[in-house]
Amino acid sequence: MKSADHGKKDRPLAVVIAGGGTGGHLFPAISLAEAFQDKAPGVRILFVNTGNAFETKTLSREGFSFQKIPARGLKGKGLAGRFKTLMILPRGIFRSISILRAFRPDLVVGVGGYSSGPAGLAAKFLGIPLALHEQNILPGIANRFLSLFAARVYVSFDDTRLSSGKAFLPAINPARVLVTGNPIRRRMRKGIGHGKKNGGAFRVLILGGSQGARAINEAVMDALGLFKEDESVFLTHQTGEKDAAEVAAAYRRSQTPGRVRAFFHDMDRRYAEADLILCRAGAGTVSEIAAMGKAAVFVPFPFAADNHQVLNAMSMKEKGAAEIIFQDDLTGPRIYEMIKSYQSDRRPLLEMAKKAGETGRPEAADRIVEDCLRLTGRL
After folding, report:
1. Which of 177-181, 197-201, 226-230 has the highest mean pLDDT?
2. Is 236 annotated as a binding residue?
3. Per UniProt, where does UDP-N-acetyl-alpha-D-glucosamine bind (predicted)?
4. Residue 29 C-beta-side C-alpha neighbours within 13 Å
5. pTM confidence score
6. Longest Cα–Cα distance in the chain
C-alpha cells in the first residue's frame, strides 16, 4: 500500500527516526533530529524504538516524542532466541505500519539497532522513502538488508565495507551511498575548539560507552593504588550504572584524585578538558573523539557484533590517530604505565590528537539532513 502523503509541501516536514538501543545508535539519531530542527523549521519528529529504559530516559530529557515497537536482535541469541526474534518481527512490522500511518512521515531514517529493521520494512510497504545511516565500518544486519531498497545510505568512514563479505549486500548501488561521517550532538559540536587550558593536572577521561564497561572499570580499579595521592594526574571516569557505587568506593579507598559518575551529560566539557581518553571503540565515541581532536587509547569490546569495534579502532590507529590495548592485555599496571608515559612525553599524544582532528567530520548531521531535504523535495 502506498502512502498518499509523502512529498506534500503544504504541511510541515514529518520525519520518523527509527533505531537506537544504546548510545552508539541513539546519540547520532538525536544529532540528526537536532539538525532537522535547525534546517526545517516546524518539522515534526518521532522516534521509533524498543522503549528500553535508556532510550526512554534520554529522549524524555531531550524533549523528543517516541513510540515503542516490539523488537529484538538476532546476534548471539542461540537457536531458540533467534526463533523468538523471528516470531516477534511481524508484530514489530505491523506496529510500525500503524505508527507510520498515523504520523504520516515524509521520510523514515533508520539508524541501526533492533527497531530499525521493522520500521524500515514498514516504510517500504507503505511507499515512504527510506534513508539509512551506518555508524560502523562493518554494517549491522538491519542495515545490510534495508540497504537493498533504501533511497540513500549514509556511512561514517571512507573505508566502510559496502560490497563484500559480511557487509552490505552486493546489489546496493554505490550512487546511493554518501560518506558523511557520524553525526555528533549539537552540544558536542559547540565544544569543538574549546580545548583544555594550559597547566594543571594531566587529565584522563575514562569511558565505557553509554552502558559502561566492566573490564575497563576493573582494570582501572586495579590501577588506583598506583595513583594514590598523585595529584599530577586527575581521572574522570564514566562507569555505567551497574558499577558506579563500586568504582566510586575504590577511588575513595585509594585516595586517587578523580571524578566518578555513572553517566556524564556534559560530555562536551569532559572531552574538552581531557589530555587523553581511554575508552571503547563504538562508532559514536570514535566520531566524537575525532571531531573534538583528542588523543585516545581504544579498548575494543571483544564481543561486539562482527568485531566492528576492533575495525573502528584499527581504522583510527592506521591513520596515526589512536592507539589500541586489547581487552586481554588490559591490566592496572598497564594503564598506569601508559598514562605516566604519555604524561612525561606528550609529543606522541599531541600527534595523535592532530591526526584525530584531521579525520573528524563535525558537519555530518548537517550534510545528512540537507541531503534528506533534497530527497523529500524540500531543498
Report:
1. 177-181
2. no
3. 22-24, 136, 185, 210, 309
4. 34
5. 0.84
6. 67
DSSP codes of every residue in 253-284? HHT--EEEES--S-HHHHHHH-SEEEE---HH
Residue 20 annotated as binding? no
4: pLDDT strictly greater than 70: no
Are residues 133 and 29 part of one domain?
Answer: yes
Residue 185 is labelled as binding a ligand: yes
Whether 320 has a binding-site annotation, put simply, is no
Q: Is 217 annotated as a binding residue?
A: no
Instruction: Please indicate, yes or no, whether residues 137 and 276 belong to a single structural domain of this protein.
Output: no
Q: Are residues 206 and 273 in the same domain?
A: yes
Q: Report if residue 7 sits inside a domain.
A: no
What size, in residues, is the chain?
379
Domain count, the chain: 2
Domain extent at residue 35: 14-184+362-375
Q: Is 309 annotated as a binding residue?
A: yes
Cell numbers found for residue 231: 595529584
**CA nearest to 363, candidates 178, 143, 115:** 178
Same domain, 281 and 174: no
Query: Cα–Cα distance between 11 and 71 in angstroms, integer?
Result: 31
Consult the annotation and say whether 210 binds a ligand: yes
Q: For residue 2, is it within any domain?
A: no
Question: Are both 203 and 139 inside the same structural domain?
Answer: no
Q: Contact at 8 Å (CB) between 204 and 235?
A: yes
**pLDDT tens sequence across 258-283:** 999 999 989 999 999 999 999 999 98
> What are the grid coordinates assigned to 203, written together?
587529565
Written as one letter, the residue type at 123 is A
- The answer to whether residues 173 and 288 belong to one domain is no
Kindly calculate the radius of gyration of the chain based on its CA atoms and give it in whole angstroms.
21
CB 142, CB 123: distance < 8 Å: no
How far is it, in rounded angstroms, from Cα 298 to Cα 139? Answer: 20
